[in-house]
Structures are given as structure tokens and as C-alpha cells.
Amino acid sequence: MINEITIIGGYDKHGEKEPVKNISISKGEIFGVVGPTGSGKSSLIGDIEQLAQKDTFSKRKILVNNEEPSYEDRTNPRKKMVAQLSQNMNFLADMSVGDFLNLHAKCRGASDKCVNSVIKLANTLTGEPIKKEHELTILSGGQSRALMVADVAIISDSPIVLIDEIENAGIRKHDALKVLSGHGKIVMVVTHDPVLALMTDKRIVMKSGGMQKVVSTTPHEKKISKQLNKIDELMLSLREKVRNGELVEDIELNLEI
Amino acid sequence: MRMVIVAGTPGSGKTAVLIHALKSLNVMNLKSSVVKIDCLYTDDDQKFAKIGVPTKIGLSMDMCPDHYAIYNIEDMIGWAEENESDFLIVETAGLCHRCAPYTMNCLGVCVIDATSGPNTPLKVGPFLSTADIAAITKGDMISQAEREIFRERVYEVNPNCKIIEANGLSGQGCMELAEEMTKSKEVSLDNEELRHSAPLAVCTLCVGETKVNKKYHRGILRRIDGFQDYEGE
Lengths: 257, 233
Description:
Number of helices of chain B: 8
Order of helices and strands of chain B: EHEHEHHEEHHEHEHEE
Number of domains of chain B: 2
Strand order of the largest sheet of chain B: 3-2-4-1-5-6-7
CATH architecture of the largest domain in chain A: 3-Layer(aba) Sandwich
Number of strands of chain B: 9
Largest interface: A-B, 31 and 24 residues
Shape of chain B: globular
Radius of gyration of chain B: 19 Å
Number of strands of chain A: 9
Helix content of chain B: 25-40%
CATH superfamily of the largest domain in chain A: P-loop containing nucleotide triphosphate hydrolases
Number of helices of chain A: 8
Oligomer: heterodimer
CATH class of the largest domain in chain B: Alpha Beta
CATH topology of the largest domain in chain A: Rossmann fold
Strand content of chain A: 15-25%
CATH class of the largest domain in chain A: Alpha Beta
Distance between the termini of chain B: 46 Å
Shape of chain A: globular
């Protein structure tokens, strides 16, 4: 049972100690990771995925329930406590969707019945449907991303979920986030999107490879978050119209909550 | 002295991973000597020189670089002993998957690139299946699912190896590799034996025939339909 993970700070890109020395994330919390491109967001996520023990660039150390995880816990996919949706937009494996999911289910010790549910879920997130017999490498960016989301949600079902930029793939990001951040999990989302950033409980601010500070989402921001959601819904509906070849004649935006 | 033989395809990150591991050995006050085997050219010796490790280059030219490495192991061991090294590290050229230049008492390390696709472990043969350590590199460039499948495939080919997820850029996993090196067996030249025989190579091509037409070829010839013939006297 994982109740908490702790990140013990290391060093930034210039070899300086990072300002945030220690941060714990508890079960049920959603954390954002924000900062300019190249500020080290993905590296932070990478450190947690590997449950780093001062053996990466940053020399960070990750504790689980205040203890060092064992080598076995860090490496055996059947025991793995971390599911990660990385930034990769495409698959490199030359096999069919069905074979790939079957193999991955086997690796994670999941039932092969998962395969159909993964494809079904992926198809709720993307436009053109994915089929079992499709080759992985011919999937579009959006299809690949949707399949990765569904795979992480169903096959890699783990107590810690790391999400690296869900917004730039043309998939329904809210639905994807909902699918991934199941009940009672520890969730971290790397994002440039204020809609997602304000949905989190706290956010870690990154700069030149180091954790600069941790900002808690204020009640005021929570309110703004709801308004942003309305704008986002409007953008989504407009996007669907344009995609389907319809004309945009009017927009209705009511920010009252 | 202990001997570490590192095999792996070109570009998989053998040198980068080794450099991080050897730095860790330096920190433990353990001395290593490196022999880099290649065919025509290498400048890897300069990289090893930068971290203060004595390095020798062996260029096999038109001979098979793995066979060349095997013939020269005795000299390499002698040279590393002169240097009073705790470790002799042999980095192979990594051109052929059929040969595994690992000997019984060495630590056999196979460096394999995760972006080469999940079928690669099934294709490569003894240099993976007879290794003690499979160091999987470039895992940060693929999705977690692909990484896990790749790992599973490595175990299918070599269930007894230890997998280290290594990163030649950040040095991730290389400290673990260095620790495995310290746990390996002492090399003993008189009893040293290959783990896997070198592939069959006794035909006219081996001695320099360049014509393609079948009638010019003699020796042990395997045909594409699976039949094997001996042509000759």
C-alpha cells in the first residue's frame, strides 16, 4: 500500500542545490509540474518513474512511504508502482496493436481480456478508430497518444501515475486525465496548460533543472479554474465543428458560475 | 584480475555506459585497463584517456573483429597485469550478433539499444543469450509499455541475466554495473574457454574469394533452403 512518496531534492543544471529540499505527495493528491521548456519537468518525472536513488543527473532521491524502494520494486514491471505516460508521440515497435497490448498485459501480469477494453477506451479519446489488427507504427499521433493513455490506465494500473504533457496530442485531455487519475492515486501532471494546472492541488515550479518552489492552488484559482473549463468546453465544441466541416456562426460564452 | 567483456551493436552506447561505470570504479580506488577492438577506425581511446584509464586499441582490419579479440586475449591480459589493473575491460566492435566473445570466467556485458524494437532481442543470438548482464540503453526515448516489453523479450532469450536499465548520458544504472564488475570471477587464462563457439566460417569467402557465382565457392556451404553441403576435395 502506497500512502506517500517523497522527493528529496538534488542539484539543478548548474550544479547548485535545488531550492525545494524535500516534498511529499500523499495518496489522492494531484500535483502539477510547471515551468518553461527545458526547465527540467520531464527529468523530474523521469526521476520518479525510476524511483531514482541519487543515480540520475539531478541526484534526487525518491522515497516510498518514507523508505528506500528495493531494487526489485524499482525494476520488476510486475511489482511496479509507477505508471508513466511519457512525451513520446509515436510507437517504434513493429507489431500490431493487438499483439503489443497482449505482450504488455503479460509483462504487467494483467489478464489478456484487457486488450479489448484498452482499444475501446482509446477510441473514446480520439477521432479515427483504432483497430486490433492495425500496425502500431502507422497510427497517427493522436491515435498513438490515446492508445498510450488507455494502456497506462488499464494495463499499467499503478498507485502512482505520471503524466507528461497530455495537451499537445489532439486528444480529449479532460477525459484522458479523468481516465488516468483514478481514485486514491498519487498523480503528477506536467503541463503548460492553465486549465490543467489549476485543476491540481499543488504545483511544483521548475527552473533550470531545479525545483524552485511549490505553489498551492488558492480557492480563488479554483474558481478561475471552473471558468477556464467553460472556455475550454467552448473551444472543444468549436474544434469539433471545424473538424466536421461546419461553419462557425456564433459563440456563446457565459463565465458566470 | 577480473575481465569484463562488453559486446553490443554499434551506436548502442557501449563506450558511454562504460565510461560512467569506470568512473565509479575509479572512485572505489580500483584500477582498470581498457582494450577497444574495432575494424578500421575508432577514437574511443581518447574518451577513456580523459578519465585517466590506460587504453589500447586493436584494429582487426579485414579479419573478423571478434575472432581477433579472442586470439589476442592472452596479450591483453598480460598488458593489463603490467598496468597492475584490477580489471581488464574489453570493448568489442559489436558488428556480428552470432559471435559471443565472452569467456567462462569473464563478466559478459551486452549493451542493447531499446529503440531498436522489441523483436531485436529475439534476433541477436549468443551475444545476448550468453551474457551475464544485459544493459538496456535509450529507454528514455520510448514509452513505458515498450520499455517493459523490451525487457520481457530480453528475459525470454536469457532468463538468467541481470537487466540494468542504463543511460549513457546521465549515467543511470552505471553504478550498478560497476558493482557487478566487482563481484565477477577472477580470470584464469589456462582454463579460460568460450561460452559459445564462434560461427561456422570455413568457406572460400573466408580466404578472400570475391566472385559471387556459386561455382566459385568451396567449403561448408549452407543454402537458403536449409541444406548444408560440403563442396571440395
